[in-house]
Write a structure and sequence with these properties.
The protein has 278 residues and is mostly helical. It has twelve helices and no strands. Helix 2 runs antiparallel to helix 3 and helix 2 packs parallel to helix 4. The relative contact order is 0.16.
Length: 278
């Protein structure tokens, strides 16, 4: 359980920070495709008798470079879809060659945070620190290219280079979080809490901080629920992430209603004051 809390917290922090830029850049599809590509690499490494973490990292990087290099910003969904199909096909092949769904492969699909060993914590921590360092290094150009891509390009920030660099960060985050959350639900932790944070806060810094807080709370709640019910932790991560997103959308809807009512109330007050003066 101590390892579960430590790894879950690290994973949530990385997912909260990286996920903010995933949401801002509209890269949710890529954040879903890269873990599936990484899973294919892990399945291939398992079939060859190699360390699955190496397969995870290699295929996640290949998927990130392929999506970033082959897809222009306006047509990135095509390259992402083709890459996803190819990786899923390879994953199916490697699974069939390995002779079945072994427990380790199953954990890569659905996550097994309660089975994280002490020796796995150090790689998780190192990759987490590396991902955070790259995001900190690229923060300004990454934020500019995410919010104002035309201005960023005019200032010399290459959109394709920045896209590849960012997707490599997503690949690193995928490598560290895949064994904990699972390939099928990892992107939910990168989408739900960050999207909810953007609904509550407009400024980037506070939004990233809130995204991390919501992601950590989601991971902690998922760990507790999984321990109490013996259900997969990935299931609870997906459910709680979706709840975060739903709460954020409700908050936005209420905010729009308040914004619409404010001018009407002001007009009514002005009319009343005019009538009183007359």
């Amino acid at each position: 359980m101590a390892n579960a809390w430590a790894s879950g917290t690290l994973v949530a922090i990385v997912a909260g920070v990286v996920g903010f830029f995933v949401v801002v850049r509209g890269s949710s599809f890529a954040a879903h495709a890269i873990p599936n590509g990484a899973f294919a690499g892990a399945a291939g490494a398992y079939w060859l008798g190699l360390n699955t973490l190496l397969g995870l990292g290699l295929f996640a990087a290949l998927a990130a470079i392929g999506i970033g290099a082959l897809g222009a910003r306006s047509r990135r969904d095509v390259a992402t879809a083709l890459g996803l199909v190819m990786m899923l096909a390879l994953g199916a092949l490697f699974l069939s060659l390995s002779g079945g769904y072994e427990p380790e492969v199953y954990s890569l699909l659905f996550g097994e945070i309660l089975g994280v060993s002490t020796t796995e914590l150090l790689p998780v921590a190192l990759v987490s620190l590396a991902s955070m360092a790259v995001v900190l290094l690229l923060y300004r150009p990454l934020l500019l290219s995410s919010t104002l891509p035309d201005v960023a390009e005019a200032r010399g920030v290459g959109p394709r280079r920045m896209e590849i660099a960012f997707l490599l960060v997503v690949a690193a985050a995928t490598t560290v979080t895949l064994p904990v959350v699972g390939a099928l639900l990892i992107f939910s932790l990168m989408i739900g809490p960050p999207a909810a944070a953007r609904a509550f806060v407009d400024r980037p810094g506070p939004a990233i901080a809130l995204s991390v807080v919501l992601a950590v709370l989601t991971a902690w709640a998922a760990i507790v629920s999984s321990y109490q019910t013996n259900w997969p932790v990935g299931f609870y991560v997906g459910v709680y992430s979706a709840l975060c997103f739903a709460v954020g959308r409700v908050w936005l809807a209420l905010g729009r209603q308040r914004a619409r009512r404010a001018p009407a109330a002001a007009v009514s007050a002005g009319a009343g004051a005019g009538a009183g003066a007359g």
